[in-house]
TrEMBL record:
Residue span(s) of domain Endonuclease/exonuclease/phosphatase: 66-317
A family per Pfam: Exo_endo_phos
Species this chain originates from: Streptomyces osmaniensis
Name of the featured protein: Endonuclease
Top-level taxon of origin: Bacteria
GO molecular function: endonuclease activity
Annotated spans, Disordered: 250-271, 297-318
Keyword line: Endonuclease, Hydrolase, Nuclease
UniProt KW Nuclease keyword: yes
Gene3D superfamilies the record matches: Endonuclease/exonuclease/phosphatase
């Protein structure tokens, strides 16, 4: 049985509403009378306004949602790990409205991000245990949670025999490359790299404790760094317990990338494009799929759905997936 498993950063998939409140009464207005009313939302138990750094968090544009949904439908994956989703209700609404309920099994646990962006897994196959590792810490900083968002562990079951474990996915969204303008750029980058390194170390430790050497599992998501970056060295470093292989070195692209100067990597191994003003564009494989040793031998093909414009189609990330013979 061929099984397609992928990852896609949905670029702030928030709900349609910026606030919620309850208004007990609305003043009546006569046909010939115009009346302006003011309502004060000052009860924290009845009002929720989503802000980040003093700005309202707005829902993703409906047309952008349609583009995201089209790309997901066209990929037609069995299991899809996603990042940057506000909450489970937003995900349910998106799947019902735009994907025709194609993914009946949704997993999302609220994580650590102050911007309310969580990781989730959509599956056509039944799901078993779902575990959040958002409380994990690193020994270097034992008093602070290590994951910016979460490490979400989801057991996927065999649709032919729901009592049988098919594979486990570990969905990630590591510390971004973003450095606040108020922070020294070099110091900000150093701190971000340190955190990403601790996150990768923790992922390897958890997987080593949770899996067997012959286990079927996939580590995937938005790693916010290149597979060969020093920050992700632990993922690429074989140990006695686990050996991971990044599966997107030579993917099949759904279409030719748009011309650029300099051109994107000829290998096609990129999912993220960033262009600073006055600087050449940078192409990075931020979205990765690492296969356990037992799945490497079952790996049939790798794919990236290529964007049609430099800014991206609904997201600044391109989705990637693998096909496995299970």
């Amino acid at each position: 049985m061929d099984v397609a498993v992928g990852t896609f950063n949905l670029n702030n998939l928030f709900s349609r509403f910026n606030f919620q409140a309850e208004i007990s009464a609305v003043h009546p207005v006569d046909d010939e009378e115009r009346l302006t009313s003011s309502y004060v939302f000052d009860d924290p138990k009845r009002v929720r306004i989503r802000t980040y750094k003093g700005k309202l968090v707005k829902g993703i544009d409906p047309e952008e949602q349609k583009v995201l949904a089209r790309r997901i439908r066209e990929m037609d994956l069995d299991v899809l790990a996603v990042q940057e989703v506000e909450d489970i209700d937003t995900l349910r609404f998106f799947v019902a409205q735009h994907l025709g309920g194609a993914y009946p099994h949704l997993s999302l646990i609220e994580g650590n991000d102050p911007r309310l962006i969580d990781v989730a897994v959509l599956s056509k196959f039944p799901v078993g245990a779902v575990t959040s590792w958002q409380h994990a810490v690193h020994p270097d900083v034992p008093g602070k949670r290590v994951f910016s968002r979460d490490l979400l562990e989801v057991q996927v079951l065999d649709p032919r025999d729901p009592d049988k474990h098919l594979l486990t996915v570990f969905n990630n969204h590591l510390k971004s490359q973003f450095v606040d303008r108020a922070t020294d750029p070099e110091e900000g980058k150093r701190l971000a790299d340190e955190l990403r390194t601790r996150q990768a170390d923790t992922i390897v430790r958890i997987i080593g404790e949770r899996t067997r050497p012959d286990g079927r599992y996939i580590v995937l998501g938005d790693m916010n760094d290149s597979p060969d970056a020093p920050t992700l060295a632990k993922l690429a470093e074989p140990t006695g317990q686990l050996s991971l292989t990044e599966a997107l070195a030579h993917p099949e692209e759904t279409r030719e990338p748009k011309p650029d100067n300099p051109p994107p990597p000829a290998s096609g191994a990129w999912t993220h494009r960033f262009k600073e003003r006055g600087q050449p564009a940078k192409y990075e494989l931020f979205d990765q799929i690492w296969l356990s040793e037992s799945l490497t031998t079952r790996h049939k093909s790798s794919h990236i759905d290529r964007r049609t414009n430099h800014g991206g189609d609904g997201s600044d990330h391109d989705p990637a997936w693998v096909v496995l013979d299970l």
